[in-house]
Design goal:
- This protein has strands at about 10-20, 25-30.
- It is built from no helices and two strands.
- It is elongated and about 40 Å long.
- A hairpin with a 4-residue loop joins β1 (about 10-20) and β2.
């Protein structure tokens, strides 16, 4: 996953959720912004 043009204030924990109709899985990770506004 690539995230472009982020601000430092957008750093934090994010949760991804995937579902296939039988089960739902989630994963949480921390996004750190190293070079704000650069791609």
């Amino acid at each position: 996953i690539y995230l472009n043009n982020l601000k430092e204030s957008e750093a934090g924990f994010y949760t991804c959720e995937a579902s296939n109709g039988f089960q739902t899985l989630t994963s949480t990770g921390f996004v750190r912004v190293k070079n704000p506004g650069k791609t």
